[in-house]
Amino acid sequence: MDILLKGIVIISGNYGSGKTEVAINLAVYRKNQGMDVRVADLDIVNPYFRTREARKQLAELGIEVVLPPEQYMQADLPILSRSVSGLIRHPAELTILDVGGNNVGAMVLAALADAFQVAPYTMLQVVNPFRPLTQTLEGVLKMKLEIEKASRLVISGWIGNANLIDESTTESILSGYAFMQRLAESTGLPLAFITAPAFILSELKTEQFSCPILPIKRQLVPPWKQAVRLKE
Questions:
Q1: If pLDDT is split at 50, 70 and 90, which confidence band does 213 have?
Q2: CA distance 182 to 19
Q3: First to last CA, the chain
Q4: Distance CA 189, CA 26 (A)
Q5: Residue 30 pLDDT
Q6: Which uninterrupted H or E stretch holds 144?
Q7: CATH class of 7-216
Q8: How is the chain split into domains, by residue range?
Q9: Cα–Cα distance between 81 and 74 in angstroms, integer?
Q10: CB burial class (10 A; 0-12, 13-18, 19+) of residue 104?
């Protein structure tokens, strides 16, 4: 099964959910399918692990990344480029907006409310069932309400990211998938896709899943590790 997302796709979630890795790898996945893809880095909360860290690799693939002005690239400041609202009004085939974590990070979307009035969007919440705040359905739904209230937008689906980094296994992926199935069934909102580290993808039996799987090539790594090459 392929991931067929297009138009404006907002990637939201709590701190540590892995939403930025999802945004980066989703952009690469759709670009490799022949789509025109652009990414806007709207994380103005966390000065670390932002989409901009992978901008060079994304540029090599022809994926435009909209960023704050160069002099503010490492600033933990609420800086939005005018090009962001322009990107929303005139999106690429796929325009991915990677917002900061929790309701605090989602507040930036409220500042773009006028642009969203004329631009249809899909807002997805990334859920890592192994993170403290999203280990239960109640916790996930509480986070959903907080993000929606802060952003003044509506979450319309889920992304399952059962991420244990280097400790991920087929068992953890299956366990996370079962959790996301229960979440989707209880809310009536679709599970757009789940993720799996590229290094264990071949070990998974795709017939066990009723949704697509996005391979993750990890980009946001500590200084002593090397990001996985995105370009084949």
A1: very high
A2: 20
A3: 21
A4: 20
A5: 96
A6: helix 137-151
A7: alpha beta
A8: 7-216
A9: 15
A10: middle
